[in-house]
Fold Signal peptidase I.
Amino acid sequence: MKPVKLSLQAFLMSCLVAGWGLVYVDRIKWGIRVAALLYTGIILMGLCGVIATPVGLYVLLGFIIAVKLASAVASAVLARRYTGPLDVPRKRFHALYVGVLIVITLILLTVLRAPLLGFNTYFVPTGSMAPTVSVGDYIVSDLKAGAPKVGDIVVYRWNGTEAIKRVAGVGGDTLAIVNGELIRNGENLGFFHAPADRVKGAESLTLAPVKVEPGHVYLLGDNRYNSNDSRFMGQVPVAEVVGKVTGIWFSNDRARIGTLFP
């Protein structure tokens, strides 16, 4: 006798939505517990600051895959053994279950992303931070990193968009560039993460002394010759700094995958 519930369908449903396959085989409480486990685990990782690095992101993806895969296998096995009525639970309950989880997911990824998850990912479309961060890199940022420090690579808002640059100075610092070398409060920081071959042109070689305003940061791109940074757009308010870039979680260049930034 053929099973009245399809194992493959149960498996795929659990892969798509946490616990959905278990709901399909009338294990509603099991499905809810799986969903609760998944979201609780994600939130706890976020609150503990685990996710905001490439390694943490891999751990998160592994956790999600493990929970979904385990529930998918369980629901497939239960589907083969199922002998109850075909129309249990009702389609309305399926729609309600999936809809609630979609809403929870959207809220976590939008409204509660910063306070609960504490991370965001970005695709890098420009080379202003090359070769540290290059076109085609996928980066992860820590949204709860605290006040930006000199040397941090940060995500910031500017004219309605988000971009990344390196913090060269914070409020109260005095900066200058002499022969391409950054002078901060009288200390020579050399090319300050910029490769020598990217330090050329008048704007890269010379900067008259400038004092960073309180509550602002002065940003420079590592690709100094081709970077629209504070030399041109001015200082950026700290309130517009979204987070600190912690590393590259994926890239077209496999050797760059997993790169961490201090």
Observations:
- The longest strand covers residues 161-170.
